[in-house]
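Hi R.,

Here's the chain you asked about this morning:
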Amino acid sequence: MDDQLALAEQIVEKATKLGAQDAVADVFKNRNFEIRFSQNQMDIANTWRETAGWLFVAVDRRLVFTDIRDFTKWEKVVTDTVAVARKSQENPEYGGIAAGPFHYRQEHPDPKVIGLQEGGALVEAGIEAATKAGATETAGSFWRNEEEHHLATSAGVRASRHGASLYYSIRALRSLEESGHGVECSTTLSGFHPERAGLKAGEIAKRADKPQKGDAGKYDVLFDTLFLGSLADQIVGRAGAFAVMAGLSPLKDKVGQKIAHEGVTLYDDATAASNGARLWDDEGVPTQRNTVVEKGVLKTYLHNTSTAKLFNTKTTGNAGLVGPNSYALAVEPGTATKDSLMREIKDGLYVTNTWYSRYQSYVTGDFSTIPRDGIFRVKNGEIVGAVKDLRLTDNILGVWQRMEALSKERQEVMWWGEVSVPSVVPYGLARQVGFTKSSM
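And here is the predicted structure, written out as tokens:
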């Protein structure tokens, strides 16, 4: 590890000698493996052993970010990057990087995750649970991720970290229109249970029996965790200060204002035991828990050093050197159960997943998204059938303002389609959510 940190320091030193006022280098090692499966059988196994990195330089407020893939040529990469920066357009809003050094908390990845050499039994446990629950076919992937990062900056940061995590995603099908999706995330082997994901996916697929075309209208809606994870990702993604400045957010000038139901508290916390955990942001600032929404009120935007100076505040430890990022989201649990939330619905829907979220207006928050996998009609607290061909068409703030109850059960979710940031979320009940017909 010392060799990689020394290399990061050399990269930064060369960049500054060539004239960069600010430089950040991250040298990282990935040791990952993946198992993909389809038709209830494991069919592809991939292993990655990668050493790579990235470099950021600022020359007179001219910014360039680049990858480093071949470290035998790192000196040329640094020289070329600084040269490109000199010819680039000035960014007058750039405010520099955070001054270190910093103190970081201790990180202790699970040695059983690091030592895991094959995941076949874990994959099979999920498949078996799904088929026992009623699925006829499954497909998905299992990942074991391990990474080391070594960060150096021209502002005095020198740091190394080592993390590991597990991830499982399974889709269960009985037909093309009868499907369910389950995921499992964990940073420990003892806390990783792929059979839970398989069981959930299989049960949803079985229950999505012969879906009928749904009717457009406004419905009371029970959101499953995958769907609520997407809605949380949408809100916090729009809470980044760069998104606000760029006109890509409905949250402009709303700090201190109510944007969600009073029962909603949502935060970004890379210090938690999550697949999104990390010790520092891209400037080396220690990560922290940032409450974005507290009892329905927007408390803060997410900041790096540059945006914090523009907003006359402090960085939240969420750099992105271009724009702030969220790392690990969580919605505080409520007091209800999933079943009690279902019983609150007299005439509505239970939606389990979504994809293809698109905004008609980032400024107002008008958006649409297509429910995926099981969509269920609910009357008098009971599922009475499955429906299809509906699109949620509403306003992202409006949906959260009508999110009147949350469950005490929570799950960590993520998947490439809609939940890009690992998110710990409950089930949620929202009133009078708009739906239109979908052709997909």
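One quick note: The chain has two domains: 2-206, 213-437.

Cheers,
M.
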